[in-house]
Amino acid sequence: MSNFLNFxxxxxxxxxxxxxxxxxxxxxxxxxxxLPLNLKTQIYCMANNIRYFDLMELSDNNFHLSIQKxxxxxxxxxxxxxxxxxxxxxxxxxxxxxxxxxxxxxKTLIDKINHKNKIQEIVVSxxxxxxxxxxxxxxxxxxxxxxxxxxxxxxxxxxxLDQRNKNFxxxxxxxxxxxxxxxxxxxxxxxxxxxxxxxxxNNYIIVSxxxxxxNFFKKIIYNFFGIYFIEILGKNSNLNKDQSQINFxxxxxxxxxxxxxxxxxxxxPIKDIISNYSNLSKALNEMIKNIKPDMVITNxxxxxxxxxxxxxxxxxxxxxxxxxxxxxxxxxTNDKLYKKIISDAIVPNSAIKFAVQTKICxxxxxxxxxxNSIITGNLIFSEVKKKKPExxxxxxxxxxxYNMQFYGVETFYEYLDNLDFxxxxxxxxxxxxxxxxxxxxxxxxxxxxxxxxxxxxxxxKNEILLQKTAITLSFSSTMIEDSLCSKIPVILLDRWKRYKxxxxxxxxxxxxxxxxxxxxxTDLKKCIDTILKxxxxxFENFIFNQSYKNNLDKILKIFLN
Length: 561
Prior knowledge:
Blueprint: E1 11-15, H1 18-25, E2 33-36, H2 39-47, H3 61-75, H4 86-116, E3 121-124, H5 141-148, E4 153-156, E5 170-174, E6 182-185, H6 193-201, E7 205-210, H7 216-224, E8 227-236, E9 253-254, E10 257-258, H8 260-263, H9 267-291, E11 295-298, H10 303-314, E12 318-321, H11 333-346, E13 353-356, H12 359-367, E14 373-375, E15 391-394, H13 412-425, E16 432-435, H14 445-451, E17 456-457, H15 462-466, E18 469-474, H16 479-485, E19 490-493, E20 515-518, H17 521-533, H18 548-560
Parallel strand pairs: 1-2, 1-3, 3-4, 6-7, 6-11, 7-8, 11-12, 12-13, 13-14, 15-16, 15-18, 16-17, 18-19, 19-20
Antiparallel strand pairs: 5-8, 9-10
Helix pairs in contact: 3-4, 4-10, 9-10
């Protein structure tokens, strides 16, 4: 990979996505270097010969560990007693964590660059937008830079830092449906379509909330098949809700820098969203009381999904969480912290049951002594029969600037470095390597194809890909359990020697293991050869053998009979 890093360059620009980057570059700056903050911004720089800092030279494992540790120290100082609903508390804390990650990430990188050679000027867009805590179009980078780097000259292309202060205080209304035998789900993603097929066969309808007006013709089609989306529509509230109890901590510090203003920016819309939690909770409770579903099933335990579980429990309705996230046992203190953060989003409180779909998750449950789990076997992970196992699949989790994670997730620049590594490595093996980017990065495929010519990139659905996969390469991803449930061996490729997703064989020459943990090219080549020669791979230590159809039928009949 070409290296555009030039520490002698003293004028830098920052943009949190490609739209912001293009806007800044349209001002025709000379002698400026970009500090890329997500995959698309770095790819754009590479494709257009724009000088950029190679973050591989500014980051290492201690970088990951430090950001994770220091963020949790800040999180532990934050109290959110003003949020009553447990599921929304978890959602809000998760958002704060991601916001702090991105702030410390930028602060650390700029400090490192400035230490090597003093920065004369930082150029930012001046954009400010806030569309809700989970929106990828929340532009806050300019505010952060202006607040944290007083000693460096900052140039804002526009002066819209306080331009858009939207009203986020909402009231909710919902439409009613006639009572029928029903299963309420938080959405139909993550293979929840399997629940629909079971429901159809067993004379239940599927009910799910949506938060926008439904297309009339789609509504007719969905209703015909027994799927009813309940519109929960928000409108601007005329009430001036008392927010005096919502007090954000003012003295949160990272090293000597006050971060509170940056974390809770913009303050008024964030307070409105917190006020909305109680309104939304009441609307979901009203929906459940109106529908009286026979069961509530979600694939997440925070936010709306978690609130549905809580309201079902309150109304004495059967509830169950089938996590689509991947949970595994920890191996050290840093690993334990990372996996605790992940589990907060997908393991409900002790009063609500959740599914244990693999033996990887079973070990997590045993290690953490969780009493509210039910061993179900696979319910929503992929499960395909291999037809022509002819490719090696590379698939990993990818995060953006606004929802960053560290330690157990590879950064965008580590991902690009891995693609470069695999592009060269592919010449040394007979199998074709196919890369499945995260769906949010599908629009980057055309460039990736031209940059990494020995790799193939695909948007194909997992079920189709796994039918032709001989080996899956991953760092951390639900694709690991998708593969194992399809009886496809997995290589945990960790070139950074940082994170082991689950128990794995470390000897690349030992045949017949379902999972290997590999750190270097030599062992990767040996491991691939070993797997291709193996003919007695036993998956019993990782998965339960029954099919998802039998498992789903069994667990739903237990709950509903």
